[in-house]
Write a structure and sequence with these properties.
By secondary structure, the chain is an alpha+beta fold. The protein is globular. Strand 4 and strand 5 form a beta hairpin. A five-stranded mixed sheet has the order 1-2-3-5-4, covered by helices on one side. The chain has helices spanning 2-28, 34-59, 66-79, 89-104, 123-144, 191-203, 226-229; strands spanning 110-112, 149-155, 164-170, 206-211, 217-223. The protein folds into two domains: 1-80; 88-234, Histidine kinase-like ATPase, C-terminal domain (Heat Shock Protein 90, 2-Layer Sandwich). The termini are far apart.
Length: 234
């Protein structure tokens, strides 16, 4: 039974790795074509759902160790997209920050302006925003070495009409202190950052990675006014 469990886990993980490698090759082309970017991202999301379902439906019933069971369940939750018809993007992100702090031990205050309404975005665009925040915090957990990260979402007071700013910052080592990430190439490397740039391009948003050595990293995402980015659901 154990060998069967190991085999299933290995096949699923290899499948997901294959998709990520395909995504890396696609992103390395630096294509600015929005249709191409959308298809690549959709393919990744489809594979996330498939792997999550198979882990949940096939692997979890075979696992009797409580700790391993919780780990696999957590992976399933991270892979599956949130249901924004049941919980708003604001509440989903607030809950994500709480779970991130509990899982990692990294303090994670979350400030989201009360007046913001993301329901005017399509479900697909809300998912893009969620994944960008999720990827930012994944990078913080893996690379920053920090004990505090912050999420701030607010309207910009410097633009007319007002844009929406998403700011994710940490107090870690910064990009320049990471091996292989320095100088003009620091914001261009890494599959996570490239994926975030692709999602930003789909949204028509501007994304910047701002870092000084030893002063942490700030991800700044500036979204166009919501009323101009609304996309009708099919």
């Amino acid at each position: 039974m154990i060998w069967l469990f190991v085999f299933i886990i290995t096949v699923l993980m290899l499948s997901l790795c294959y998709v990520f490698m395909a995504m890396r090759r696609a992103l390395e082309r630096e294509s600015e074509n929005r249709e191409f970017s959308t298809m690549a991202i959709e393919g990744l999301e489809t594979e996330r759902r498939r792997v999550s379902r198979e882990l949940h439906d096939i692997v979890l019933p075979m696992v009797h160790d409580p700790q391993l069971h919780d780990v696999i369940r957590s992976i399933c939750m991270e892979l599956m997209p949130p249901n924004f018809t049941q919980l708003s993007l604001k509440d989903t992100l607030a809950g994500f920050c709480m779970q991130f702090a509990q899982k990692t031990g990294i303090e994670c205050p979350c400030f989201i302006e009360e007046e913001l309404d993301f329901s005017q975005y399509s479900t697909e665009n809300q998912l893009h925003l969620y994944r960008m925040v999720q990827e930012s915090f994944t990078n913080i957990e893996k690379h920053s070495g920090t004990n505090k990260a912050t999420l701030i979402i607010r309207k910009s007071v410097q633009t007319t009409p007002q844009t929406v700013l998403i700011l994710i910052s940490d107090e870690g080592v910064g990009l320049q202190s990471r091996p292989g990430l320095s100088g003009s190439t620091m914001a261009a490397k890494g599959l996570g950052m490239k994926s975030m740039r692709q999602r930003a391009a789909i949204l028509g948003a501007k994304i910047d990675f701002i870092s000084d050595s030893g002063n942490g990293l700030k991800v700044r995402i500036e979204l166009p006014p919501v009323q101009h980015r609304k996309i009708q659901e099919p």
